[in-house]
Amino acid sequence: MLRGVTRPPRSPPRGPRPGGDRRPVAPHRRTIPSPTAAAALASRAGAGGIVNARRRCRRRGQRGAARAPHRALTAWPRPAGGLALRLPARAGVGEAQRWRVAIVDDRALARRELREAVQAAGGGVVGEAVRRAEAAALLARVRPDVLVVAARLPDGDGCAVAAEVGAQLPVVLLTDPGDESLLARAVQAGVMGWLARPVRRPEVAATLDLAIARHREIRELRRRLEERKLIERAKGLLMARYGLTEDEAFRRLRRTAMDRRESMATVARSLLVSESLLGDVPRA
Question: Average model confidence (pLDDT) for the chain?
């Protein structure tokens, strides 16, 4: 320290402020208003309720009400006194049904038992009919995932219904005990499964799942078979027109499909369509 230079004295330590050690609260840190005040403030906001309520709360330093003015909008006084707050209701998301089932049966009691079994397993019944003639209209209207039809109907049987709609969706046959004469016809008609009366709930879920899985697998096999037939016809056309071998025709179809970023079945279908259109046109 240099001589002749005096150091300024330190300021005395701060003591307690007069009237207590409380410091003035900043305007933006005031206490949260009561729900009644927030509700009254929001009710006077008019058309732009939430926006205007937030602005007024900020101007008045009511930070708590500005954070959640929508809760204040849903407040109402109770008749016995006090205040009840209701939070905004969330939009409930319904659980997806396991299956959408249609039933064709003329017995009301059997339909009710099957409906309860399907609902207990997590599915839903979207339509019911009592006659064979009503089955087609029912399926076109509700578009179910699986159809459960009785083996015996007033105007026919379930095998006939399965033969008509079996290509569109899986069909499960509902049979009586000892009625095994329809099993051979059911297999030929395309029935994917059957249930015996009285319906047992544990068997319903397994039968419907198996029927849907088998029908999906059969449809996939049929689609692949149809695509294979188209490719074979397209290969034969290229071999006949350009004198190519089977491997060369196949490679040409595959290269064209890769260049156009399409499946070989789509390319083969386009080739066959163009050939049918230009079949009668003389070559240049």
Answer: 76
**Alpha carbon distance 116, 162 (integer Å):** 23
Q: Does domain 100-199 have CATH number 3.40.50.2300?
A: yes
At 161, give phi and psi (nearest 5°). -65, -40
Q: Retrieve residue 21's tokens.
A: 């050690």
Cβ(44)–Cβ(74) below 8 Å? no
Q: What is the pLDDT of residues 40-84, one digit of tens each?
A: 555 554 444 544 555 665 555 554 444 544 444 444 444 444 333
Amino acid letter for position 212: I
- Nearest-angstrom CA–CA distance, 40 and 46: 11
**pLDDT of residue 89 exceeding 90:** no
**Residue 208: which pLDDT band, with cuts at 50, 70 and 90?**
very high
- C-alpha closest to that of 215 among 242, 180, 190: 190
Distance CA 282, CA 277 (A): 12
Cα(25)–Cα(6) distance, integer angstroms: 40
Burial of 184 (0-12, 13-18, 19+ CB in 10 A): exposed
Return the percentage of the chain with pLDDT > 70, whole number: 63
Choose among 96, 265, 120, 91: nearest CA to 203. 120
DSSP 8-class letter at 2:
-
Q: What angle do CA 198, 123, 178 make, to 5 degrees?
A: 20
Two tokens, residue 112: 């009710």
107 backbone φψ class: left, alpha, beta (φ>0; ψ -120 to 50)? beta
Is 177:196 a contact under the CB 8 Å cutoff? yes
CATH for 219-277, among 1.10.10.10, 1.25.40.10, 3.90.550.10, 2.60.40.3880? 1.10.10.10
